[in-house]
Specification:
Largest sheet: none
Number of domains: 1
Distance between the termini: 12 Å
Number of strands: 0
Helix content: over 70%
Order of helices and strands: HHHHHHHHH
Number of helices: 9
Shape: elongated
Length: 209
């Protein structure tokens, strides 16, 4: 399997994982014991691990895209996205495992006040700054790569647009309803699958030794 098709698979699986993240993640009042139970659940860990894997696969897809196209703008986009993922993933790691432990303790002790620890982590200045900068850089990287795809002419010009829109909306979607967040996951899935389809369909023509 050549690098183009490996990149296509990375985009496809990464996009599906973002949809899994938003649809499997339990939604509840995270100031009450119901929210603690959600954080303590296996679904919470599964969903956030899916998001982390989605970031990794999306950035690997951008690398494969650059290796396939060799377009001038695709490498800077990939590098910026890698940096963004590196800054965002520690926050997701704490969401995955740290909040899971806090939620489990709150449920065990029947003490919703322990969830204040989750809020203290989420809004700690260094943690939230790294996270927001990381997501912003991921969006910039994907958009930059999409511009490279548009200019290269090797794929359909619109190949990278849905994925770019999905990453551009990553920060705003946190403030949406569960339905809007699941819709955002669906947008990322469509974007990843659309990019994968275009790469796979034209892979033989743009693959290089």
């Amino acid at each position: 399997m050549n690098r183009v098709r490996l990149a296509a698979l990375s985009f496809a699986v990464g996009g599906i994982l973002f949809l899994l993240y938003q649809s499997v993640r339990p939604y509840a009042d995270e100031t009450a014991l119901e929210g603690a139970a959600a954080m303590a659940s296996p679904a919470w860990v599964t969903a956030h691990l899916a998001a982390s894997a989605g970031f990794i696969l999306a950035t690997l897809g951008l690398l494969g895209l650059h290796l396939a196209l060799g377009a001038r703008l695709t490498l800077p986009g990939a590098v910026v996205a890698w940096i963004g993922a590196g800054l965002a993933l520690p926050y997701y790691g704490a969401e995955t495992f740290g909040l899971n432990v806090i939620g489990a303790r709150a449920v065990r002790d029947q003490d919703a006040t322990l969830l204040e620890l989750a809020e203290q982590f989420r809004f700690a200045p260094v943690a939230v700054t790294m996270f927001l900068i990381g997501l912003a850089l991921l969006a910039i990287g994907v958009i930059t790569a999409a511009v490279g795809v548009w200019r290269s002419g090797a794929l359909q010009r619109w190949s990278g647009v849905p994925l770019s829109v999905g990453f551009a909306l990553f920060i705003p979607q946190f403030y949406g309803t569960p339905a809007l967040r699941i819709t955002h996951g669906a947008l990322l899935a469509v974007g990843g699958l659309w990019m994968a389809y275009n790469l796979w369909r034209t892979g033989a023509g743009i693959s290089r030794p």
